[in-house]
Amino acid sequence: MNANYTVRTSRTVKSFLDYLLPSASHWKSAIRGDLAYRGQASSSWSLVPKAFRRDVVVGYGLGAKTGGLDRVLPQAQSEFEAVHEFVKAADGAGLQITETGGRLLLQEDPRHIFSDPDWEYAWPQEEVLETLALAQHHGVPTRLLDFTEDPLMAAFFAASEAWDPKEGKPREGSDRKYLAVWVVDLRFLRAISSIRNRYPERIREVRVPRANNSYLHAQLGFFLVDRGANDIIARREPLSLESAIAQRAEFWHYGDRLRGNGIRRQTWFDELPIKKVRISTDQTGELLRELENRGVSRGTLMPSLDRVVESLEFQRTFPYTAVTET
Description:
Shape: globular
Distance between the termini: 32 Å
Strand content: 15-25%
Helix content: 25-40%
Structural class: alpha+beta
Radius of gyration: 20 Å
Number of helices: 13
């Protein structure tokens, strides 16, 4: 099987958005919740969580390190400190964290929290994933990646990050020729996760209650995490979610392991269940205008009166051009 995921380039805004809709035939009868979407301002960027990026400081203290460390212990320790400081600061401000793991992460010593002197090698532990997801959603660098169930929302996040509102045009840069929406078929991840195995499957969905989080609720947000990242760090190999998904797909397709475990029919969109759909950044303004016409804006994705005003000011910078048919 070709380990290179498919890259689809759309020529028009309409074809770009139409291609992403789960009702399109190439997604093989997907319904909402079957596909995970993530928008990025540059097609050349990999799916690398903030905690693994070498240009991101992980933590808030004087000794905070940048991400992408090449050893498991300091990487896990930095991530723990970042989320611990977030939980402690929230508690100090009188803000309650109800997600599982919030109380645990208030404690200072992870060896006692997890009853494990070598806790770093199992990080992040199951009991704190919900709180990590909350921290990630609010901007704390973690090894989780944000996704949405709605392709139009993912397209908006990609386009809004690619657009320079002060200049009224796309941001410039050699790596900004295309913006992209990544699509992951969760049906494949769920199928392999259902197989009884000695070890849990590597790629994991993480969902937290949306009822008390208006942004997460509006954005239909959830997260994916690579539970095998520590092994990759130990081997000092590149970390990216698309590589991890490709490797898991290759493993399960090799020797027909899926059929051998009772999964007889491919119900996901491709053998490699990840795809990148991109469009030229020259069409960013037109894309933002069309998304606004379809009811997707900062005001709807981050509902508050301040965001509504920000959205109106942001929209003022878009060009008024008609969306090209196919």
